[in-house]
Amino acid sequence: MKIVILDSACCGRGKLEAATRQALGKIGIEAEIETVTDLSTILRYGVMATPALVVDGQIRVAGRVPSVDDLASLISRSAS
Predict the structure, then answer these.
(1) What pLDDT is stored for residue 79 in this prediction?
(2) 13 confidence band (pLDDT: 50, 70, 90)
(3) Mean pLDDT of the residues in the chain
(4) Dmax (CA) of the chain
(5) Which has the closest alpha carbon to 2: 55, 58, 41?
(6) Where does residue 63 rank: exposed (0-12), middle (13-18), buried (19+ CB within 10 A)?
(7) Tens of pLDDT along 32-74?
(8) Got the DSSP string for the chain?
(9) The domain 2-79 belongs to what CATH superfamily?
(10) Among 2, 17, 31, 70, which has the minimal tally of Cβ within 10 Å of its Cβ?
(11) CA distance 41 to 47
């Protein structure tokens, strides 16, 4: 599983990555995580609001940081 975190330089930088790592630990799934901060790369994903979570090429969350439990559920569904 590959997870891409799209994160701009806004005040919440790093929160989605931290929550995603916690969620992965909670559900016992290993994933490659890449954080992208380059605006032109973020725009290529078609995301207009950050932070955003991309799981295996699919945008799953944009413009907010879900709870660890919500992320765990979302990632689990994506893995199956």
Answers:
(1) 80
(2) confident
(3) 92
(4) 33
(5) 55
(6) exposed
(7) 999 999 999 999 999 989 999 999 999 999 999 999 999 999 9
(8) -EEEEE--SSTTTTHHHHHHHHHHHHHT---EEEEE--HHHHHHTT--SSSEEEETTEEEEESS---HHHHHHHHHHHH-
(9) Glutaredoxin (3.40.30.10)
(10) 2
(11) 10
* Burial class, 75, CB count within 10 angstroms (exposed 0-12 / middle 13-18 / buried 19+): buried
Both tokens of 69, joined, read 């439990």
Question: What CA–CA distance (Å, rounded) separates 12 from 75?
Answer: 21
User: Hey, what are 3's tokens?
Assistant: 């997870």
List the structure tokens of 27: 């559900």
pTM: 0.90
